[in-house]
Each structure stands twice: as C-alpha cells, then as structure tokens.
Amino acid sequence: MGQMTIHRDRRDVGWAYLLWFSWFFGICGVHRLYAGRWVSGLLWLLTGGLCGVGQIIDLFFIPRMVEDHNAGRDVW
Predict the structure, then answer these.
(1) Using one digit for the tens of pLDDT, what is the confidence trace for 9-66?
(2) First-to-last CA distance in the chain?
(3) For residue 27, what are the CA distances in angstroms to 4, 39, 40, 45, 48?
(4) Could you tell me the pTM of the whole model?
(5) C-alpha 3 chain-centroid distance
(6) Distance (Å, whole) CA 48 – CA 26
(7) Which end of the chain has the least Cβ crowding within 10 Å, N or C?
(8) Could you tell me which of 5, 6, 64 has the C-alpha nearest to residue 35?
(9) Buried-exposed string 39-54: b where 16+ CB fall within 10 A, e elsewhere
(10) CB distance 61 to 32 below 8 Å
C-alpha cells in the first residue's frame, strides 16, 4: 500500500493579500477562506475580523496560512 495524498489546488500569497484588502469594503476573513481555514474564516466574517484586531495580525500570518494549505497540513 502506498501513501495516500490529497491533491489540493495551490494557493498564492499575493492573491491572499489581495483578498485581505476586502476588509476595506467591510468583508473580513475572505483570505482565510481562500487558505482553507473555513472555521476561522467564518468567525472573521461574523465578527468583523475579531473587531479588526485579527485582520491586522493576519498581515503577518498570511504566508504561513498559504504554506500550510499548499503543504496539505490541515488546520482550521
């Protein structure tokens, strides 16, 4: 038996940052949904990016979120 791998569409850090800018139009968390973090993405959508604080912090975490998605590491 071989190792089972899951094929995922690769994500791009540049696109994730562009989606982060949707915050200026009142839509938070789209970048998290793009990176495969559905639970926290929905939380960001419902809470305004944790009142904007989480949205600002994500500026530093976006590259890691995209890297985790592309590597197949499941995080919520």
Answers:
(1) 899 999 999 999 999 999 999 999 999 999 999 999 999 999 999 999 999 999 999 9
(2) 29
(3) 36, 16, 14, 7, 7
(4) 0.84
(5) 27
(6) 7
(7) N
(8) 64
(9) ebbebbeeebbbeeeb
(10) no
Q: In Å, how far are 1, 4, 52, 55 from 45, measured between CA atoms?
A: 42, 33, 11, 10
**String of DSSP letters for the chain:** -PPP--------HHHHHHHHGGGGGT--SHHHHHTT-HHHHHHHHHHHHHHTHHHHHHHHHHHHHHHHHHHT----
- How much is the pLDDT for 3? 59
